[in-house]
Each structure stands twice: as C-alpha cells, then as structure tokens.
Amino acid sequence: MSDVLLEVEDLRAYFELDEGTLKAVNGISFTIRKNRTLGIVGESGCGKSVTAQSIMRITPKRNSAISGKIMLHHGSSSVDVLQLDEDGDEMRDLRGREIAMIFQEPMTAFSPVHTIGNQIMEALFVHGEKDRGAARARVVALLEEVGIPAPERRIDEYSFQLSGGMRQRSMIAMAIALNPRLLIADEPTTALDVTIQSQILRLMKRLQRENGMAIMFITHDLGVIASMADDVAVMYLGKIVEYGSARQIFKDPKHPYTRGLLRSIPKFGATEGAHLATIKGTVPVPLDPPDACPFANRCDDYIAGKCDARMPEAVTVAPGHSVNCVLYE
Q1: Do 220 and 313 sit in the same domain of this protein?
Q2: pLDDT per residue over 176-235, tens digit each?
Q3: Is residue 103 one of the residues assigned to a domain?
Q4: At residue 1, does pLDDT exceed 70?
Q5: Do residue 199 and residue 270 come from a single domain?
Q6: Distance of CA 102 to the CA centre of its chain
Q7: Which of 260, 254, 243 is nearest to 325 (CA)?
Q8: Do the Cβ atoms of 10 and 29 come closer than 8 Å?
Q9: 68-95: burial string, b at 16+ Cβ within 10 Å, e else
Q10: Domain end position, chosen among 149, 179, 209
Q11: Both 173 and 190 in a single domain?
Q12: Per-residue pLDDT at 41 exceeds 90
C-alpha cells in the first residue's frame, strides 16, 4: 500500500502509579495515508493525546512502558519509531523533518522569555541551518504564509504580545518550518473563538494541499472532524471502538458511543428550553480496566453476560468500516 505513511499496530502506553497501572492507550491500530487527514475523536481522558505523544516519543519516561509498532514509511524504506532512542539523533531528526506537532495550548508551548522568531529559528538551526540571516528570512516567510500581519515586526515579539489566533498561527509556522510529511494537531482550536477557529482550519487545509502533508487531527469536536477529516477513529478509554471514512462515521455510525457523540451535537432550530442530549456517566480513569467492553457501564444497548464478559472483537461492517461491539458479532 504505497499511499500509507504511518502504520500503528497494537500500540499500548501504560504508566505505573501507586494506585495501579494506568492504561492510557490499550492496544490500538490505525493507518495514516499520504495527503489525507485522520481524525481521532473522543471525550477527554480517552487516550488521544497520549497516542500523539507516543508517535512523537515525548511521553513521560518515569514509570512508563510504550509497546507495539509505529512504522513510518518513506519510499521503499521503513522505520519503527518505537525502536529508536527517543533522545537519539535519528529520532531527533525525524521530529520536525518527518513528523511535527501542534500542541493544544500555544501559550504554554512557547517560552515567554524568547521571541517567536528565535524559537522558530531554533528548529531550523537544530536541523542544520547555519546562516542566521537565511533562517530569519525563512521565518518571516513562514509567518507571512500562515497569515500573520507585519511578519517583519512580529518575528521579534514574545508570545504574550500576540493574540490567541496569532500564537496558534505561529505554532503552525514552527511545525511546518521543515516541510514535515505528517502533521499532528492536538486540539489546535480548542481555546479559540469560532471565527478564529474557522480561519485556522482553513489555513491547515490550504497548507495540506500546498505541501502535500498528511494530518492526524485530535479533537473532541465532531463538527471540526466533519470539516477536516477523510478518515475517523473513535477512541474510548484507550481503545478504538469504531473506524471508517468520515462519510461512514457520520452517515451510518455503528457503535453506541459514536451514536451518543453524534446525538450530543447541539442542533440548530432546536425547541426553546429543550435539553441537550448527553451520554450518561463519565469516562472512568483507566486504572486496571477490566477485560471487557470499556463502554459497557454507560451504554444504552448494554447486554448483561456479553458486554461485561469479554472485549469485543473488531467486526467489518462495510469496506474500510469496522466496529468493536457485540451487537455486530
């Protein structure tokens, strides 16, 4: 499959705590294809961000165990990212040049004591740029490309001098500085108002077209997924419970959790005073989760003796569309 850029197979991210084993990611598999966007959606605490951090090899080292395979393909060659030294030269070279990441909150991602320009230029210097003048010109061009006005002046400003939208644009400029083949966006529009959010999403789609990037877009917002994603993975409590194209997920959702998420989207024209649809309960902390359906205790279609007895197998319900639920076995 020559269009596959990244293959994740049976990825697990476990953290040993005093209370037990925190299984943040508990055996997930998916693929990301060239020039396409994979949306990963789910409530907070489902393991989406840890999945991204595992691909970037930036999970906390203390008391952690990351296993599985993360195969990055480049032409006829492939490398398992999990087999690389996370602090070694090869992994450091992959970050930025092959895989880059936009973090959720740019105010904390940027250093408050260094200018935006210096922080973006540092990425260029780490990857071999020697000429400071050329690096500065490249950063000015990047800031202009992502739509920041007066980039020659903004390059010397600090993150706290920029608006939320401009900070996020600056982070995108840093992420695309080395033309990565995969861009991971972890909730990049959560802290922005809807107008700026729309601008950032349009910017990312334009950059994807122009640079030929694949995007892994993490969010809890199904509206954003609908406008951005080609393929969708629905995560719950460290598991992928449904996987398919965006059209399949939105037109014919199968898993009770996916249907619950879609019902929870506020509807235009709803009756005044009507209650929003919700999913009962909350996502539990994934401490030593039972070997059964992780959604069983919140599911309206719960079947005693089945849902709580074992982990459901993935069932293919249509080409490219799979669901982990006993209702379809």
Answers
A1: yes
A2: 999 999 999 999 887 778 888 888 899 899 999 988 899 999 998 898 999 999 999 999
A3: no
A4: no
A5: yes
A6: 9
A7: 254
A8: yes
A9: bebbbbeeeeebebbebeeeeeebbebb
A10: 179
A11: no
A12: yes
